[in-house]
Amino acid sequence: MQPDPSRERPDHNIAMWGAPGSGKTTLLAALFIALTKSDDDWKIIGSDPASSDYLIEKTNALLRGKLFPEANMTMERYHWTLLGPALRKPGFWSRKAKPGPPARIGIGMTDAPGGWYGPAGGPSALDGSGDPRLQKLLDNLERSRGIVFLYDPIREFTLGDAFDHMHAPLTRLAERMLAAGEFTDGKLPHHIAVCVTKFDDPRVLETAEKRRLLTVDIDDPYRLPRVTSEDARELFHELCQVSASGTADMVLKALDQFFHPDRIRFFATSSIGFYVDRRTKRFDWDDFQNMVPGEADEDSRIRGQLHPINVVEPMLWLGQRLAAIRPTVVS
Amino acid sequence: MPEPDRDLSRKAIAQALADLADTDRLTLVEIAADGVTTFLLHRDDNGRPRGRSWSATWPGLAGERGWGTHPAETREAVLRMARAASSTADVMLVAASSADPQVEQALAWLRAAHPAAQVLRAEAPIAALIREVIADDPLTRSYELIVVLVDSDTSRPRLTSRQLFPLGSRPGARTRVALRCEAAGAHGTAFAVVTWQGPKPRLLSVQSAPVAPGRYEVTAELVRPGRVRFTGLPALSPDPRGWDQLVAALPDRLAGGSGPAHLVCAVEVCGADDQVAERLSRARQMISSASGELGGLLRVSLLAYAAHSYDPSAPEFPVRIAAWEAGAGEALNALGALEERGAVARGYPYHPHAAQLEDMLAVVVERLGRADPAPAVILTVGGLPPHPARTDQSRILPCPHRHDWRKLLAALRQRQGTVLGAICDQPADQAHQVWHRIGAAALAHLEAVDVRGLAADLGLVASSPVHLPFPLLDETE
């Protein structure tokens, strides 16, 4: 009897990190849908029944109910495994390669506490070190070697708190990694996929269009606009200019300070993608919003079919990069 | 030889009356078996025949001594009775045909005194005959109704007259005239009939009644000279005002609301029930208010629009044309049906932050484009902004029909005589900027609308009540 690969300890972990409401749960549900639609042999599986149920529930909410899935308050206890294709090992006695175990990458999700949190707001806790959420995030980040960092440009435009959510955890993480001797090249050892979310929002798309950053995949039957990873950093930089607090550019600087350039990649991401009319089956510049806003006491809904954009790609990039390095021993 | 025939007498008197000039008098002296009666006929300032008479018996003329005692004195008494002003005055002598010596003697004296007088013979007293002749006298002047004309450029009213009966008209003649009545104040609208003698009209009759504003098809009937009866109006009664007083009541200028008006009411019927009810209530008030002052001159169109559906499985409620260029009553009935139905298109997948305002504008532009370019007041009652024609930074989903509210609004603003007003859920300083354009001429807050003031701002009614003492000639006739 073969062991259940999802029950085995993953080779690496990926931490999904973002401010509350930045779209982590939606991204996870969209990831499941996108992987199912994808030709790649990657899949996401719950690490335990509760995590599987959570994934099923959120995916159904997105697909059937057309609702944006709400995050569970205790989502830190859910874990999933990204299972890649089986690695083929070269045969020792013969030239025929043998199938090896599939790549296993654990996925954990944690809200990033914002501001200077502390149990009572006292001086000793001004850096947030006493906040249990920060501790959980740090634990998650410390045992991960891949990070999916969600940057919500619309939230930044209205609230401008991205740097608040990033600063304390990053500083604390660096402190821990330095103590553990993991700061070898002067940078954190993590690979980080910076996902600029809400790419489907007109303000984000328009910014990309104005900067001439949009491309269309010629194989895409819907002709959906995209921003390549090479250009996504420029989009990120451009969007930082409209931060409500004016501190968004410090996010970019902090990323450059703490992560090696080879280990940073930017993605312009949309979990729900653009609206595509069922009849025309083509992206329409005049009508592409895929979200129907709700009444004051209601949530927004998904308007049409989901067309996730750059949801799989960050995971695959992290998966491929992590698979190429020695499995972590951190548990 | 005198003609005893009554018809001949009638014709002779009628001819004499017809020949009577404005300044002349006609004297008819009836010499009957019981005495002498003199009738003095003339025409008044309006050419209408008027008459008076006086009588004396033979004993009264002869005195206590009796007929024949003092013939000279009796003769003088008979001639005084005739009271003919001069020998040049027209005199007709009408004598009884019986061979009464007193009659014959008196006739002889009168014929001698008025040798040019026409002599008629009549059996019965001629008083009734004279009344008949007067009543059947053809008009010697045209009868005209005083009406108001409004200069379309200056809005200044001016008086003129519309002919009712030409010269020669006889009693029983009828004529129809289309009139418009405005609010007329306490005395009501005056229907003044005049004749013209020189540059100034001469008032013949004034009757008035509180007439509801509106268009009227009035029939005027010439009952008799000097008497015109109007039908197609509320009951008229004599007006105590004189000509100068009536003319003084004419305003210098009409500030609006004096002409036919087309009110297009478009109401947003999505949202909370009480909000929708309030909007419909305001539309009702506006229609009722304008109708109260304009009456039948007001045409009303009523449209209802809601929210777009963004899910093919949920029905779209298209813009509903509840009434188009209907009377106020019909429009209010249609409004009642909307009130009964209440709010529609609520919740998912209907867009909560915008409404089909652009679809409504498209309908109005198309409908108004079909008709003659008559003035129209477009009053929109709602609160949500329209959908953009295409995705923009408002994040409001685009109109499924790609209607462009900016272009549609521009088309309406360029249309001659089109006025845009709005009653918005929010006060002006909080209303979406679109509402300032939809209510370009006047923007009111739903919760505090001075309905009449808004109607005045939109030019539907006069800003302060302007009373027109006379009817307007309906130029659409």
What does this structure look like?
The complex is a heterodimer of chains A (331) and B (477). Chain A contains 9 helices and 11 strands. Chain A has helices at 24-37, 49-63, 132-143, 153-158, 162-179, 202-210, 229-240, 248-258, 312-323; strands at 12-18, 43-46, 79-89, 98-111, 146-151, 191-196, 214-216, 225-227, 264-268, 291-292, 301-302. The radius of gyration of chain A is 20 Å and the shape is globular. The two termini of chain A are 26 Å apart. The relative contact order of chain A is 0.16. Chain B has 3 domains: 6-135, Nucleotidyltransferase, domain 5 (2-Layer Sandwich), CATH 3.30.420; 143-253 and 469-473, no CATH class; 261-457, 3-Layer(aba) Sandwich (Rossmann fold), CATH 3.40.50. The mean pLDDT of chain B is 88. The interface between A and B is medium-sized, with 18 and 18 residues. Chain A: InterPro entries: P-loop_NTPase (IPR027417).
Describe the secondary-structure layout:
The complex is a heterodimer of chains A (331) and B (477).
Chain A: E1 12-18, H1 24-37, E2 43-46, H2 49-63, E3 79-89, E4 98-111, H3 132-143, E5 146-151, H4 153-158, H5 162-179, E6 191-196, H6 202-210, E7 214-216, E8 225-227, H7 229-240, H8 248-258, E9 264-268, E10 291-292, E11 301-302, H9 312-323
Parallel strand pairs in A: 1-4, 1-5, 5-6, 6-9
Antiparallel strand pairs in A: 2-3, 3-4, 7-8, 10-11
Helix pairs in contact in A: 1-2, 3-5, 5-8
Chain B: H1 6-18, E1 25-32, E2 35-43, E3 49-57, H2 58-62, H3 71-82, E4 90-96, H4 101-113, E5 118-122, H5 127-135, E6 143-150, E7 157-165, E8 174-181, E9 189-197, E10 200-209, E11 214-224, E12 227-231, E13 237-238, H6 243-248, E14 261-268, H7 273-294, E15 298-305, E16 320-326, H8 328-341, H9 357-370, E17 376-382, H10 405-414, E18 418-424, H11 433-438, E19 442-445, H12 451-457, E20 472-473
Parallel strand pairs in B: 1-4, 4-5, 14-15, 14-17, 17-18, 18-19
Antiparallel strand pairs in B: 1-2, 2-3, 6-7, 6-9, 8-11, 8-20, 9-10, 10-13, 11-12, 15-16
